[in-house]
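#struct-pred
JK: can someone run the complex with S-adenosylmethionine? inputs below
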Amino acid sequence: MADSASAWPEIPEVEFLTKYSNISKEEALARIEQVKDALRRDGQHLYKCIEHGTFGNSKINRHPFYRQLLELSRSPDFRFLELGCCFGVDTRKLIHDGVDPAKLSVSDLSDVYWNLGRDILFAGDEPSVERVFGDFTTAESSSDLPHIVSAHGWVEKFDAVSAFAILHCLSKEQTDQFLVNCFQSLKWGGNLIGWCVGTLNSAGSTTNVMTPTKGLPGREERPRFLHTADSLLLYLHSIGFSQVRVTVSLRHIPGADNASYFGELKPSFLVFSATKLKKPAA
Ligand SMILES: C[S@@+](CC[C@H](N)C(=O)[O-])C[C@H]1O[C@@H](n2cnc3c(N)ncnc32)[C@H](O)[C@@H]1O
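RT: done, structure tokens with the ligand placed:
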């Protein structure tokens, strides 16, 4: 992707929040701080992007697929799933840009962030989209609980699925299953889009690991795995995706020089898209 580090806004980011809620920059910054305070008070995890206050801005419109996504959304059958929806910023961006909320679904591990988005960040605004909260990294046969994809009628349901800033929070096994679940939930011809922190240098498929995220209270997370552009491309192909693109962006990653965090790894920003090509006729 042709971008430069300066193409990215400075943090904290408030552009979309000020526009959507019609508030001043000062008010937007104050709401961002209130959200962070509420999370700390509650003992919830503050992901790095939350700590740095990037959640006052939408991400999805900065993905190269966005224009095509808006075109696709005009079809009456269009369905979109935002994974790791957090405070619900990207979904509100789609609605702001004219997408019918009835065509949208959001999902996250828990509803903690979504609720703070409704109560504080967007001051009472809650779009009427389908909402499902649960772990998107489990395999169909791994527990007695109903599988998140099949339990909600999501098999081959979506024209597009987004995964922004999630893969790098997961272990290798979780990342693999998360992407398999994405594939399963896409219609034939559908597209997966997103980005994640990756690494420029590989220490091996099982050793590109960092300390785990803190996770939800009471939930222990495993060491996270960082893909290289090549390993993500290969894995997406291996589970059936075609037209896979993984590009390294020049965006600065806050904390990239923190050796205690990244160890020997050289963090990079990976932007990806992949298509579940139409099923060949039998
Ligand atoms: C770093 S935040 C990114 C949020 C948002 N997509 C963005 O770009 O700002 C990671 C998100 O992934 C969610 N998440 C983490 N583990 C998950 C899991 N196992 N299943 C579903 N969502 C998960 C977190 O709750 C959080 O909302």
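RT: quick notes.
The chain is about 30% helix and 20% strand.
Residues 87 and 117 are 4 Å apart (CA to CA).
JK: thanks, will look after standup
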